[in-house]
Amino acid sequence: SRSLNLAVIPGDGIGQEVVAQGLKVLSAVLPQDVKLETKEYDFGAKRYHATGETLTDADLDALKQHDAILLGAIGDPSVPSGVLERGFLLKLRFAFDHHVNLRPSKLLPGVATPLAGQPEIDFVVVREGTEGPYTGNGGTIRKGTPQEVATEVSVNTAFGVERVVRDAFARAQARPRKKLTLVHKNNVLTFAGHLWTNIFTKVAEEFPEVTTDYIHVDAATIYLVTDPGRFDVIVTDNLFGDIITDLAAAVSGGIGVAASGNINPSGEFPSMFEPVHGSAPDIAGQGKADPSATVLSVALLLRHVGYEAEAAAIEEAVSADLAERVGKPARSTAEIGDALAVRVAG
Amino acid sequence: SRSLNLAVIPGDGIGQEVVAQGLKVLSAVLPQDVKLETKEYDFGAKRYHATGETLTDADLDALKQHDAILLGAIGDPSVPSGVLERGFLLKLRFAFDHHVNLRPSKLLPGVATPLAGQPEIDFVVVREGTEGPYTGNGGTIRKGTPQEVATEVSVNTAFGVERVVRDAFARAQARPRKKLTLVHKNNVLTFAGHLWTNIFTKVAEEFPEVTTDYIHVDAATIYLVTDPGRFDVIVTDNLFGDIITDLAAAVSGGIGVAASGNINPSGEFPSMFEPVHGSAPDIAGQGKADPSATVLSVALLLRHVGYEAEAAAIEEAVSADLAERVGKPARSTAEIGDALAVRVAG
Ligand SMILES: CC(C)[C@H](C(=O)O)[C@@H](O)C(=O)O
Ligand SMILES: CC(C)[C@H](C(=O)O)[C@@H](O)C(=O)O
């Protein structure tokens, strides 16, 4: 009999509520013969305040034992900015070499968008996850004085760029439109820009069926609001990917439905799946959070570990549920979770 | 009698066409007693191909003699990416210490926006112009090999951050809503983030009437499409400013109407004014480009050199012209320039 062994990290704020619904839908969709095991971990603000720890080596060893990780959200205003981000989330992405940060954007029928004219939107961003300006390289001298200098170093390697670019080409190749756009700022960040552009051009030769283009990150934000339909697969660096995927989420239905995977394609380490949204402390504990983004992250998780039919069933259920919401009163987090669980089971 | 002595750089592509209209409107609006002198400079792709030069020390000495600079657009596909950007545009911004990159966004009546519901948009971005990831610091080792490493160093100084933050506070103070938002990514780029955040908090004490807030750059892109009305003045670093001002232009009527100033507030060097759009080689020479962004850049130029009434007259003329366009056939670049010249003269 098969088994699926998950690490579950509800985290802070609405993380708790949405992860509960994610697990509910997961249990409902999994075939009977699959033994689901979950172990909950208490990372986040509470543990940090109690112990000063964000993510220890022992924690990493424990997490390594799982097939995959489901994360709600980490972050709380009581913790100084950067502590949990660098100490937990980025530490985990780097330690487990999550170099493919996968963020699909699809405007589902009936879902509201801030854009006029309800454009067709169906693309996926492959964001590099282990390099660029996110490495923590840099520093400060003369802190707090009028002579302070602070640097941030974006580190880009041929190794790191090539593997994520190749992954993105393979994903583009597998989609009907077979189109890949590189987003960077190679006219200003010329060192990193040349590396990205050269590798992109080189790897393109291995994928003759894939149509390619290049867009500067500033122009990409324009197209994301004026012509999002032009995008199929986008590959970009860690920081540009962070920025454009929030915008992509906003135009394709909001962060209530934006899912993401932090993927280690080799399987050497477990991959982690999480909604793009944060812990939203302002609405935590009120049953107001939309669990759809987490439920869709569960679908990405299932696809990653080989349950394609179950992943598709979840995506169809969320799509149908969203279409049905139009004009109806708002439901609670748990009500949406219940409805999705019924759909995937039925 | 007064005089205004301008350097005019039409540049490449549509730059030529739009600058001609900018000068037309400028001549029409200037009071009779002001002696307008202009000197044209041939920077851009043509000169680069002919001489290999982008901007020499002698060029900088010549430009220094002017009261201000009007730029069309620089860039052509025949020149490798980065050559004119770094060799001309950024070189000029850095040489003349254009540390306040001013980019207003106002959705004028009748102007189309990709956003649903025609929201109210009226804010200005103060983008730092001489530091951050734009300094050209960084480098490449083992170029072209599988072991290539490319770095980009964002350099941030207390001196550079404080002067632009103070400028932004002063601008917020002078506006009715008196609100200033710092946009950064201080939870990940913690070295630069702390510098920006600390200085922002410190300078805020000098401006007790200004309401302040802080938003991560990724979240800022969400607000720019879901709630742009929340912004009054934004201050941000060079790269984040580049990205969000293109998005800001897109939501507030497009880059056909987005103006910018590269300002040296001390007056030690001439400031430069340019449309946010590029040289658009695909439509160059066809009379299709909208000169409004350049004409509005002329207004920013006039305000900078002390002609507030004339600046306001241009802004009113462009606003009226845009409102009148609705439902009418498209006019040529020169026709729009003519109409604006008539309006400001009348
Ligand atoms: C919380 C933050 C560190 C994170 C990031 O910048 O990657 C978030 O914005 C995201 O996109 O997952
Ligand atoms: C052309 C390029 C160098 C420039 C920049 O990045 O600053 C442009 O995008 C702008 O915003 O003025």
Mean pLDDT of chain A: 97
CATH architecture of the largest domain in chain A: 3-Layer(aba) Sandwich
CATH topology of the largest domain in chain A: Isopropylmalate Dehydrogenase
Ends apart, CA distance between termini of chain A: 23 Å
Major sheet details of chain A: 10 strands, mixed
- Spatial extent as radius of gyration of chain A: 20 Å
Number of individual domains of chain A: 2
CATH classification, class level of the largest domain in chain A: Alpha Beta
- Assembly category: homodimer
The greatest interface between two protein chains, and residues involved on each side, is:
A-B, 67 and 68 residues
Count of discrete alpha- or pi-helical segments spanning 4 or more residues of chain A = 11
**Tally of DSSP β-strands of chain A:** 12
Helix amount of chain A: 40-55%
Task: Enumerate the distinct ligands.
Answer: 3-isopropylmalic acid
Structural class of chain A: alpha/beta
Low-confidence stretches of chain A: none
Molecular shape of chain A: globular
Word description of this protein:
Two copies of one chain form a homodimer. Chain A is α/β, with parallel strands linked by helices and 346 residues long. Chain A has two domains: 1-99 and 256-346, Isopropylmalate Dehydrogenase; 113-252, Isopropylmalate Dehydrogenase. The first copy, chain A, is 41% helix and 22% strand. The first copy, chain A, contains eleven helices and twelve strands. Chain A has helices at residues 15-29, 45-51, 57-64, 83-95, 158-173, 190-204, 217-226, 238-251, 292-304, 308-325, 333-345, and strands at residues 2-11, 34-40, 68-73, 100-106, 122-128, 138-141, 149-157, 179-184, 211-216, 233-236, 259-263, 271-275. In chain A, the strands form two sheets. In chain A, strands 2-1-3-12-11-4-5-10-8-9 form a ten-stranded mixed β-sheet, sandwiched between helices. In chain A, strand 8 (179-184), helix 6 and strand 9 form a beta-alpha-beta unit. Chain A starts with a strand and ends with a helix. The interface between A and B is large, with 67 and 68 residues. Strand 7 (149-157) of chain A pairs antiparallel with strand 7 of chain B. The complex binds 3-isopropylmalic acid (IPM) (2 copies). One 3-isopropylmalic acid (IPM) sits between chains B (85, 89-90, 242) and A (187-188, 218). Chains A, B: Its main location: cytoplasm. Chains A, B: Keywords: Amino-acid biosynthesis, Branched-chain amino acid biosynthesis, Cytoplasm, Leucine biosynthesis, Magnesium, Manganese, Metal-binding, NAD, Oxidoreductase. Chains A, B: Pathway: Amino-acid biosynthesis; L-leucine biosynthesis; L-leucine from 3-methyl-2-oxobutanoate: step 3/4.
